[in-house]
């Protein structure tokens, strides 16, 4: 019984976190139209990638202090359920989902697209809002690969908040090649400074191994690479790259790579 | 009373290496199973729905049928409420709906634009005429659209 009560509290926290992290997207018009307009194969790939991402994230920041695969899977599924239900309820209240629409592909698309960020929020909330402070267990495990994974999740998560909007495309159209290069440099610098110089909480244990050059090559560059990859993936998912010239795709990726880089850099703060 | 579950829920986290020990207290609560099952069902629904649509969904461009729902006489003209249904395999954006009313030798055209009509879904709007569409002949159709993505 006690375990159930504890889990119920964790579940309520999860709903709170899902709400906190996903309401900007739930209240964004492009998310509704993309939910029905996104090509089905891309939505399928997105949904299929969400699950392993949630399981991995649960390993680092689940809303139950767990260590076994079974529990990570359970947590990830519960988080997805929380995200899905929250998105469905709120979208219905907002009048985005009409009653006859819920079980059409358009309705499912809208909910599913919003459910993913909400699920991430649900998982993170377990740690962020939990009674115990930031756990130390997950940091001890962070090797280079898991560091990259967390960066990727952080990048995807922050970029996802703006990726669906028209503004990404518009900014890319407005920017010239020089401005793009400047943005690349700024993104990389910010990434490096945020992660390795500013002394944010959560980075204490980060390997400040060796000199500037080593950290830069070994961590900042892969981090920016991951951020760009995530940007490109999101743009592709949302159909922003279809029929667009290569240099415009590159500019768009850099534009979205800016929030993605910040997300990658601050992943440690949040996750 | 209130203290008790708190300490109980905290104890596993206080020992991060609990998994290494037999840990008899660590038992998956029923509620955890239940919520995971709910999540699994929802995830399976979303993925299954999308996969089914990707594999067997309708193909082809948007094909939009416009149907007359109801005509209401108002002080500001006759309002013909119409519904657009997309029978095609792709969603359509900025769908232009046009109605041409021919009655008593004269002709009146009225139109509006719908933001999105997803495939297999409907959207609705209204056309306004000076004369009663019930009397004359009303031709409804979608005159054009943009690709949704």
From TrEMBL, chain A:
Record-annotated membrane-spanning stretches: 12-29, 41-61, 73-96, 145-163, 175-195, 216-237, 249-270
Keyword annotations of the record:
Membrane, Transmembrane, Transmembrane helix
Task: List where this protein forms a coiled coil.
Answer: none
At the top level, the lineage of the source is Bacteria
Q: What is this protein called?
A: TIGR02587 family membrane protein
Automatic annotation (TrEMBL), chain B:
Q: Which UniProt keywords apply?
A: Membrane, Transmembrane, Transmembrane helix
**Which residues lie within the region annotated Disordered?**
1-27
Where are the membrane-spanning stretches? 33-52
The biased composition feature labelled Low complexity covers 8-27
Report what the protein is called.
Answer: TIGR02588 family protein
Species this protein is from: Caulobacter hibisci
Lineage per the UniProt record:
Bacteria, Pseudomonadati, Pseudomonadota, Alphaproteobacteria, Caulobacterales
